[in-house]
Amino acid sequence: MSRIETIKGYLNELHLDAFYITHIPNIRYLSGFSGSSAYIIITKDKNYFFTDFRYQAQSAEQVKGFEIEVNFSPAVKIKETILNAKLVNIGFESSHLTIHQLDQLKESLPGVNLVSVPERIEKLTMIKSPGEIAKIKAACEITDRVFTKLLEIIKPGMKESDVSAEISYWHKKYGAEKDSFDPIVASGWRGALPHGMASQKVIETGEMVTLDFGCIYEGFCSDMTRTIAVGKPKSDEMVKIYDVVLQSQLLAVKAAKAGAVTRELDTISRDYINANGYEGKFGHGLGHGLGIEVHEMPSVSQRMNLPIPENVVFTIEPGIYVEGLGGVRIEDDVVTKAGGCDVLNCSPKELIII
């Protein structure tokens, strides 16, 4: 069954006349369109694609199986289409539409019943096709190459922001479209900040540096974290923390497979960290889905209790963060298979001292 046919199946299941889709990553998933502004309406009989003049040529090339409407104000054409087609019950992506946007829709379409349909498309995007997995793997290979390059570049005296700039440069140099998110470069005490964006801090000899970065290749993301030491680590505890994080990460990778439950995977890693004296220092989930977006379903954490299907790509990224001392995180991207998982990164995970 095609993706569009699956959406049409939702219309029957939910007694809808149409599904109104506004989230750009989901629009790319359904139509192949890689631009930044578009809307889709899928009915039982027709598929409509709306964009503006900037994307007239691009949509004609990329979007197949839709009636393409190019208008200076797509909202006007969307309203006209809904009224002309006499669409009454319309599902919308309630996970992505703001209250203000919903109020505007209701005001524009007073005779239409707008029905909340959360995360239906996300449950489709969660399971990757072989072609999508290949693109994520290619993105991971680029990120691996950048990590290798960073081992040559990072030196005491460099600013974190300089390292971040090198990441972005080498991602593009090696064939990526761009970074999949702003690189995280956190050295020394700043390693205790799980999302410590690169600062003007100078990297010093003996510090650990957490590097969390990824790229986009043909629309699909990578996301990898490695923590390295610049010179012999000044803190014996940081070396111990590194080993605890590494072992907890390897345990979760070993347990990851089709059918594994998100919460249970998180617990495997978290219990190991807690048992080794760092309870309360792993303050985020074990991982998240990865694809067109850098954060997708599933949430591999205590918040979600979902058996993971086959061919789902997600991250495994435990960490320990000690305020005033530093932190360690190690992250791989994996894809579930029957009986196990494939790790898409190949960068080494033992402690590297440069």
How does this model look, in words?
By secondary structure, the chain is α+β, with helices and mostly antiparallel strands. The chain folds into two domains: 3-125, 3-Layer(aba) Sandwich (Creatine Amidinohydrolase, Chain A, domain 1), CATH 3.40.350; 127-343, Creatinase/methionine aminopeptidase superfamily (Creatine Amidinohydrolase). It is built from ten helices and 19 strands. The protein has helices at 3-14, 24-31, 56-62, 74-84, 99-108, 120-125, 130-153, 160-173, 236-255, 262-278, and strands spanning 18-21, 39-43, 47-51, 67-70, 89-92, 113-116, 178-179, 184-187, 207-213, 215-217, 220-221, 224-230, 287-289, 296-300, 313-316, 319-322, 326-329, 332-337, 340-343. The chain has a six-stranded mixed β-sheet with strand order 4-3-2-1-5-6, sandwiched between helices. It has a three-stranded antiparallel β-sheet with strand order 7-10-11. A three-stranded antiparallel β-sheet has the order 8-9-12, with helices on one face. A hairpin with a 2-residue loop joins strand 18 and strand 19 (340-343). The model has no long low-confidence stretch (mean pLDDT 97).
